[in-house]
Amino acid sequence: MLPTTGPRGPLFGLAVSAGFVLLFVFGFLAWQSPPQLPQLPKSTTHVEMTVTNEGTAKLGIHEIIRQLYQPLKIAPDESSFSFIGEDLNLTSLTLPRDPRYTKQMGKDVLILDLETRPLESTEAFNHGLFDWRKLNHVSGGVFSHYIYSLIHGYDYKFVHAHEFEDRHATWIKPSALAQHIKNYKFIVFLDADATFRFQHLPLEWMFNYWQIKPEHSFTMALDPWDPEAPQYNSDRFNRTYTNTGFMVVQNNAHTMQILKDWHECPDDTRYKGCSEWKMPKFHEQSAFGEYIRYDYADYVKELQCAEANGFPGVEVSNCQGKYVRHYWFEKQKIKEDLQQNMMNAITLPIQRIFAENIGGIITEQKENVLPN
After folding, report:
1. Beta strand pairing status for 242-250 and 300-303?
2. Contact partners, residue 319, CB within 8 Å, separation at least 6
3. Positive or negative CA dihedral for 311, 313, 315, 318?
4. Among candidates 227, 334, 233, which has minimal Cα distance to 285?
5. What is the pTM of this model?
6. Least packed by Cβ within 10 Å: which of 123, 194, 204, 349?
7. Which domain of life is it from (predicted)?
8. pLDDT digits over 196-251, tens only?
9. 24-41 pLDDT, tens digit each
């Protein structure tokens, strides 16, 4: 990967306790509303939480997350999507005409995490030592992916795979995808250091924006490419690699064969010389770029790096992570992205209380005098 060329803007500190804040907003989770603003009760701002005799909250974290983001969610075929970027300017994006995906696909989509490493945070949790501030980027990325699946009703799996004996751990990707793709229309895979920029923006909207068609077995973003350093991120034909840290894999007639050829590539079964990429960078990504995509060009869709790779501060190829961010460096910023998304969802209903004076919490003082 190419190094980042500039810092990202300052973000607020990691001092918010997510559990406490979620409890605070329980009372705001009863509304059902269009995406613009949540419909909150106008009679009171009192917060209540009902518990069972055993002291267990009836409202689980799954439902809390879904209801928290419900007012923010964008419809799959919403004609436009607007957001405020790092430059604090408003940006609006428009879908192409006649979008293909008009309904949520729910459990037909799998969000897949794939690791050979155990989550460090789980060991800390089991010892009563869980602390958000100490969360590493792997757990931060995994939590972010899981929350995204809850928001939109997608299926989710965390696959803990055993490593190969003769090749790099990232070679587990083709076989894991092959084991699960038959049960889904789409699998969306992300590395632990990749994340969705907007938690409330569904995959279906992005699929429409990218114009993913039924024949596209794989959709991936290109890596950054610098004409001053062309030897990086390029195959033997000087063509830029696609990055396997974010993949949209569609279940169609060609997908299993592609996965088979990719999985067997380092055995030199079909592609002589592919064993070169058992260990050297970029492992399975290099093999895909050097061999697989040339035999299956009609079934691989390549996105610009700016769309689904990189992060703010990367100037090469404008890899700013417009929809999907991939933190090749500064990996702890995965947590900051998750925190920003969560705080935006939490503070929106609170802001509405003050904007609409719900519950009469704002009192106008017309005269600045002492009472009699």
Report:
1. unpaired
2. 223, 224, 305, 306, 309, 310, 311
3. positive
4. 233
5. 0.84
6. 123
7. Eukaryota
8. 999 999 999 999 999 999 999 999 999 999 888 888 899 999 999 999 999 999 99
9. 444 444 343 333 333 333
